[in-house]
Design brief:
Layout (H helix, E strand, L loop, with lengths): L7 H31 L4 H23 L37
Helix pairs in contact: 1-2
């Protein structure tokens, strides 16, 4: 991606959202693995933490899925007949065909 891109700030915002989604997903996975590893000893703490992390992860996935295209303003990940999930990044807008990073 060129640093001189017209929509540079928008693409940086999308990368930040993706990183946030990945972080919440990994933290959730870690909390669930810790729960399995420790058993019922820490469930009073780990279950609410896991529920909060799950909610944060789902909300970040939703924000990515509804992220507006910098050119047309319509949701970047919607518009195709088959839209891939946000964690499988699309290369082009489903509405105006804007390529990522341009």
């Amino acid at each position: 991606m060129s640093e001189y891109s017209i929509f540079g700030e928008d693409w940086r915002a999308l990368r930040k959202l993706r990183a946030e989604c990945n972080l919440f997903g990994l933290l959730l996975l870690g909390a669930l693995m810790l729960y399995v590893w420790t058993g019922p000893r820490f469930e009073i703490v780990l279950i609410p933490i896991s529920m909060i992390l799950f909610w944060l992860w789902i909300s970040s996935v939703r924000r990515i899925y509804e992220w507006p295209c910098p050119r047309c303003g319509r949701p970047f990940y919607k518009g195709d007949l088959v839209s891939p999930p946000p964690h499988f990044p699309k290369k082009r807008c489903g509405h105006c065909d804007l390529a990522v990073g341009t």
